[in-house]
Design brief:
The complex is a heterodimer of chains A (about 200) and B (about 170).
Chain A lengths: L18 H11 L5 E4 L3 H10 L5 E3 L7 H11 L5 E6 H6 L2 H9 L4 E7 L2 E2 L5 E2 L8 H7 L4 E4 L3 H13 L4 E6 L13 H11 L5
Parallel strand pairs in A: 1-2, 1-3, 3-4, 4-8, 7-8
Antiparallel strand pairs in A: 5-6
Chain B lengths: L2 H11 L2 E6 L6 H9 L4 E4 L3 H13 L3 E7 H4 L3 H8 L7 E5 L9 H6 L3 H7 L3 E5 L2 H18 L3 E5 L1 H4 L7
Helix pairs in contact in B: 1-2, 1-8, 3-5
The chains are: A alpha/beta (about 200), B alpha/beta (about 170).
């Protein structure tokens, strides 16, 4: 896409960033009532660590690969609200079809952020396919999400996330990250997570 | 009224407007009925797990939904029912067209079908097999009320006795 031509063409050209640092930057951009859905693993843990109890945010405890579908469901239910899905490379590789569903639904209020370290880090760092040639941004574009881009560096990440907050989506932002340990661990209480999320969404009072 | 017209009308009455599905021949008239009605937002997904995730997110966002699939598709769902719908108390409505019995011609379908009810029972998910036209409205109506009130998923199984099933294709 021409408007995104200043961003790297491939995964190899993107800077390896720190997961917690860019999650913190993303959360810092959220000024209103944007919803965030965190997939499993360290993506989830650092979202928890970076958010200070912010709502509405949903933290999966299993169901690997479903951050994008859950976020899509929220985006369909509440079209006036911006929704972010934070997902890891291993997770999104499990549910690549969901990217074509996002494209087909043409949801204007959804942004998918892929934290790509090329590894199943929480299980010991085994390589995923993104470390062996698969390019999630390329896959997303070919799935029909035209506004898909690698973040060249931290400033580019903030710029892309800022555009996703203002301009019609769907968006997909690829963020290369390193192998740092997460800063904290998400509280594993599904009833509390769901209730807090729904209250944050204005569905429960 | 046909079974699928009854289901469509009960879904409308309960404000279940989102329909995600992986298609099936037996479900085809219901899928066509919801596509033909502007009340519904209906679309196919690439996998049943994805369809369940979308309905779950939509419910948390205040929109009720149901996912439609066939028996073999249900067999891909145990992990997400056990780690998303049940522990998070999300009343996911599921409707499965039953293959694998009463004249099945595909051995794969007949084998995988045997896993469906044991999985539902193991996860303590309410399920009802609908065999007669006169019980469809009562079962779907009451079960949606219960699912919403108790925040628990429910699975409706469409028996070939109700739908005619899928007959041997030469």
């Amino acid at each position: 896409m021409a408007a995104l031509s200043n961003h790297p063409l491939s995964r190899e050209q993107a800077k390896v960033m720190n997961r917690f640092d860019i999650t913190k930057r993303l959360v810092g951009l959220l000024k209103a009532d944007e919803a965030v859905v965190g997939g499993i693993g360290y993506t989830n843990f650092d979202l928890w660590a970076a958010s200070g109890g912010r709502q509405p945010q949903f933290y999966m405890l299993g169901s690997m690969g479903l951050a994008v579908p859950i976020a899509l469901g929220v985006a369909i239910a509440q079209p006036a609200r911006r929704v972010f899905a934070l997902e890891g490379d291993g997770s999104v590789l499990m549910q690549l079809g969901s990217l074509s569903t996002v494209a087909a639904r043409a949801v204007r209020n959804l942004c998918v952020v892929i934290m790509d370290n090329g590894a199943y880090q929480i299980t010991g760092g085994q390589q995923t396919m993104t470390a062996q040639g698969a390019d999630i941004v390329g896959i997303a574009r070919a799935s029909g999400i035209a506004q898909s881009a690698w973040a060249a560096d931290e400033d580019a990440f903030v710029e892309l996330a800022g555009r996703a907050l203002k301009e019609d989506g769907p968006w997909l932002i690829g963020a290369r990250i390193g192998a740092e340990k997460p800063v904290d661990t998400t509280e594993r209480n599904p009833a509390r997570i769901r209730d807090g999320f729904m209250r944050g969404l204005g569905v429960r009072r | 009224m046909t079974w699928y017209e009854i289901v469509r009308d009960v879904l409308k009455r309960h404000d279940v407007s989102l329909v995600t599905y992986v298609p099936d021949n037996v479900l085809r008239p219901l899928i066509e009925a919801v596509h033909a009605d502007p009340f519904f937002d209906a679309f196919a997904c690439t996998r049943e797990e994805e369809a369940l995730g979308i309905v779950s997110g939509a419910w948390m966002g205040g929109k009720r939904g149901i996912l439609l699939m066939q028996t073999s598709g249900f067999a891909t769902l145990p992990n997400v029912i056990a780690s998303l719908a049940v522990p998070f108390s999300i009343p996911v409505l599921m409707m499965v067209s039953e293959r694998g019995t009463l004249g099945e011609f595909n051995i794969g379908q007949s084998l995988v079908a045997r896993t469906m009810r044991p999985v539902l029972d193991a996860l303590a998910v309410e399920h009802h097999t609908m065999t007669r036209l006169d019980e469809v409205e009562f079962i779907v109506d009451r079960s949606i009320v219960q699912a919403v009130a108790t925040m628990a998923p429910v699975c409706f199984i469409l028996s070939p006795l109700l739908t005619g099933g899928k007959v041997f294709a030469k």
